[in-house]
Fold Kv channel-interacting protein 4.
Amino acid sequence: MLTLEWESEGLQTVGIVVIIFASLKLLHLLGLIDFSEDTVEDEMEMATVRHRPEALELLEAQSKFTKKELQILYRGFKNECPSGVVNEETFKEIYSQFFPQGDSTTYAHFLFNAFDTDHNGSVSFEDFVMGLSILLRGTVQEKLNWAFNLYDINKDGYITKEEMLDIMKAIYDMMGKCTYPVLKEDAPKQHVETFFQKMDKNKDGVVTIDEFIESCQKDENIMRSMQLFENVI
């Protein structure tokens, strides 16, 4: 059973932790927790897939991963996704395996859209690497920008109460019955109100990226959560 501090003032920490936690689950699914000495460089050159990844050197320059780490990431990605891309249905199937006690469908949808930066309906190896690079190795500013983009569902530059409520409900649905204490039905709405009281500085009913980043940087729980998985691979 997974225990979360649902009643803490830093309630928005839950969403950020789940972002990173869900990405870690994906790494585990792809078998990327342990290093292997085998090389996959030849596989990257010869793989007959629909989508070929960019050159390792370019990805190494663009991301915060080493060439060795990128080789390991690619091996797992290719084994699970022979076509070279992940569509939304596959993404949902991945998360359903790790959250069987709940319904991860909606959260996986939001997370997929955050990884699918060019909004073409699929996540390529490059999309996957760049997202993980930010979540696991990025600066605080980069991680918070990524999190804001996830919460800003319609990508208009603001987080509304409706958007945050959709995200909170999705997180609670995914966690299912494995939370302690047991959540009340109106918990998501209460937590959204707490979120906005803390982050909506000018009380205009929306949270801008500046308000979001400023509030998160002042929250010790959030800052601590961002350092949990920096060296998982």
Notes: The domain at 15-30+55-138 is CATH 1.10.238.10 (Recoverin; domain 1). DSSP finds twelve helices and four strands in the chain. The chain has two domains: 15-30+55-138, 140-232.
